Each structure stands twice: as structure tokens, then as C-alpha cells.
Amino acid sequence: MLERIKEMTGIYSLGFDKASMMGIMLPLAFVIIVGGGLSALVLLM
Q1: Up-side HSE of residue 39: CA atoms within 13 Å toward CB?
Q2: Cα dihedral 12, 14, 16, 17 in deg (nearest 10)
């Protein structure tokens, strides 16, 4: 199950190269941007 999730996210299948770093950084950046946006909305309310 965990293997399947890793394959779908594209982190596991690419190994340890620049492409795999992108596979890790893009979701991480997305979470930071969304989290930052939500916290900004909460603070502004």
C-alpha cells in the first residue's frame, strides 16, 4: 500500500536524482503555500 502511494506521488519511482527532489519539493511547496494562505485568511478575519 505504501509502495503504491509513493509510486503515485512520483517520489519513489524516480530514485535519488534531481527529478526526485522536484517530486519532494513540489508537494512540500504546495503545502507551505496553501498553509500560508489559510493562516493569512484566519489572521485577517
Answers
A1: 6
A2: -150
